Amino acid sequence: MSRLFLTSAGFVNRKIGERFILELGKPVSDTRILIVAYAKNPKEEFFVNESKKEIEELGFKNIDVVNMQNDVDVPDLSSPDVIYVCGGNTFAILNKLRETGLDKFIIEKVNSGVVYVGVSAGSIIAGPNIEIAGWGSEGDKNEIGLEDLTGFQFADIAVFPHYHEELKSEVLEFKNKVNYRVEPLTNDQAIFVNGDNEEIL
Predict the structure, then answer these.
(1) Where in the sequence is the domain holding 107, given as residue range(s)?
(2) Cα(93)–Cα(84) distance, rounded to whole angstroms?
(3) 194, 138, 144, 197: which is closest to 162 by C-alpha?
(4) How many domains, the chain?
(5) Which CATH number does the domain housing residue 97 bear?
(6) What does 16-57 look like in DSSP terms, one character per residue?
(7) C-beta of residue 131 within 8 angstroms of C-beta of residue 96
(8) Which of 44, 90, 98, 133 is the most exposed place for a label (fewest CB within 10 A)?
(9) Quick one: which of 175, 123, 127, 131 has its CA closest to 149?
(10) Is residue 66 a contact partner of residue 105, using CB atoms and an 8 Å limit?
(11) Within its chain, how far is the Cα of 154 from the centroid?
């Protein structure tokens, strides 16, 4: 049974972080978190560090960070309790996850009970496919020409992250062309998926 926190901006909204702690079912001090990122430049590294800082501010200390830009092999890790997949260009991240084999690692762990936290691209990748990532005026460019857009399929939800009112018509247009659910999320929102139960936070 998958447990997912699909977010636009991680734990920027502290209430989401507090709910995350409640749902862990074990003490913060005993929780091991694996952050998976693809930071190719200092700007992207800054956002990964900000994510790590947010997690530390919630009280977590046992945090591993894998930057796929540098770490090309699947990490030899004992099982984490939480896998936290950062944002960036969704097409590039999914492609790199496949190249490193981390996609299989993540799917296996989450399907066996590890909690999944997605941030922006990380939330999109958790869904049925990542087509939504390239949609609209603020979408990612598929610069690598990724053809297989299949996501991790943890939930039948396509997250539209960083939503604001000006994007309403674009989201509606996308909803009308696909046969799965589309959920727009502002930077203060998240979807908590617990098996068959879902809740907008």
Answers:
(1) 3-200
(2) 13
(3) 138
(4) 1
(5) 3.40.50.880
(6) HHHHHHHHH-S-GGG-EEEEEE---SHHHHHHHHHHHHHHHH
(7) no
(8) 98
(9) 131
(10) no
(11) 11
Tokens representing 103 are 């996609």
pLDDT per position as a tens digit, 144-186: 999 999 999 999 999 999 999 888 999 898 888 888 899 999 9
Strand, coil or helix: what is 141?
coil
Cβ neighbours of 164 (radius 10 Å):
10
Q: What is the 3-state secondary structure (H, E, C) of the chain?
A: CCEEEEECCCCCCHHHHHHHHHHHCCCHHHCEEEEEECCCCHHHHHHHHHHHHHHHHCCCCEEEEEECCCCCCCCCCCCCCEEEECCCCHHHHHHHHHHHCHHHHHHHHHHCCCEEEEECHHHHHCCCECHHHHCCCCCCCCCCCCCCCECCCCCCEEEECCCCHHHHHHHHHHHCCCCCEEEECCCCCEEEEECCEEEEC
Provide the residue count of the chain. 201
CB burial string 127-156: b at 16+ within 10 A, e below: bbbbbbbbbeeeebebeeebeebebbebbe
Q: Which of the residues in the chain have pLDDT under 50?
A: none
Of 87, 186, 192, 178, nearest in space to 132 by CA = 178
Catalytic residues: 120, 162
Closest alpha carbon to 123 in 40, 30, 9: 9
Instruction: Count the neighbouring beta carbons within 10 Å of the beta carbon of residue 47.
Output: 18
